[in-house]
UniProtKB/TrEMBL annotation:
Known catalytic reactions: RX + glutathione = an S-substituted glutathione + a halide anion + H(+)
Purpose: Conjugation of reduced glutathione to a wide number of exogenous and endogenous hydrophobic electrophiles.
The name this protein goes by in its record: Glutathione S-transferase
Gene3D superfamilies listed in its UniProt record: 1.20.1050.10, Glutaredoxin
Amino acid sequence: TACTTQTQTQIDRDPKQPGAMAGEKGLVLLDFWVSPFGQRVRIALAEKGLPYEYAEEDLMAGKSDRLLRANPVHKKIPVLLHDGRPVNESLIILQYLEDAFPDAPALLPSDPYARAQARFWADYVDKKVYDCGSRLWKLKGEPQAQARAEMLDILKTLDGALGDKPFFGGDKFGFVDAAFAPFTAWFHSYERYGEFSLPEVAPKIAAWAKRCGERESVAKSLYSPDKVYDFIGLLKKKYGIE
């Protein structure tokens, strides 16, 4: 279960560091418990063995001044504060961790072409999965049927990209795995709303999801599929979706 300890650090701007927060030291993650984008950062931090402070943002109640100051452009989580300096957008945070902590275990391979491929598939996941999954539970009728067909195509494409490898990074859990693993907790909801079976549509992804769930970094960062399904139910009520 992910930690949700609220931090009380002062968030005044540091005049010596543009964009930095005064009084911040080390790594602080501004996050929301069920966010797959925040969870990919938690997984990466765990894989790299980097200690950090977790700061839960109650997004259902509104966005804190701290979040708005740390990410004034998009006003979204996750935000990683490194010695008070904010880094925004989850995949950019993952790449930042690769650069800022070169002595920690790497998620990206050393070969430039392999690195490019990893970034491509992480970007594919980023642009496709959450948006399409959201349309599965938000829409009805023909628009939902289109979202279902698109989701099946996405999963089959990723199934082919994974191939017979244990992980997208090969034998080693890597960048794409960290980016995609949080959505394994959403697969149950996608299956229910989309009325499909993941093992039938993308058997290699289904097996990969089980392998990911056995990793401590993933298991400690994600919540149960049932909790995710219940959270979607809350969102449907909030948005007035029957």
